[in-house]
Write a structure and sequence with these properties.
With 135 residues, the chain is of the alpha+beta class. The chain is 27% helix and 25% strand. The chain is built from two helices and five strands. The protein has a five-stranded antiparallel beta sheet, with helices on one face. The termini are far apart.
């Protein structure tokens, strides 16, 4: 009688083994996802905004010396739209450089630039064409 019991238990275990293999494996609990900052927009590409930004930074470095934005500064970019124009503001370490354009227009395309540094009070307004010439 005891032998039959052991045999039944072994048969039951053998029959349940495939079912146990089909059950999902219990994994360690994963930490809750922490919210991340929204992805940073890429610097606008093309001959326009980047050329205008580079031209203004070079001009400021040549005319203002140490008062100009530091080379290699890491800019944060925000879209900026003012009265029918499109553009971007570049922000870092108290600097704000907004570059806007009226969209498609006569060639060469012109960009309006407003640079300001809150801590020092430095402000510059100007225009730059798509080739980097300041006006």
């Amino acid at each position: 009688m005891n032998g039959e019991r052991y045999l039944l238990i072994i048969l039951a275990l053998v029959c349940l083994l495939p079912l146990a293999a089909a059950l999902p494996v219990l994994a360690e609990p994963q930490p809750e996802a922490t919210p991340t900052a929204p992805p940073q927009p890429e610097l606008p590409s093309g001959a326009g905004y980047i050329v205008a930004l580079d031209a203004v930074l070079a001009h400021m470095s040549a005319t203002q010396g140490d008062r100009a934005p530091a080379p290699g500064i890491r800019w944060r970019v925000e879209p900026a739209a003012e009265g029918g124009s499109e553009g971007y503001c570049y922000l870092a370490e108290g600097w704000r450089i907004c570059i806007s354009s009226r969209g498609e227009g006569p060639s060469p395309r012109m960009y309006r630039v407003h640079l300001e540094h809150g801590p020092s009070g430095l402000e510059w307004l100007g225009r730059v064409d798509e080739f980097g010439t300041l006006f």
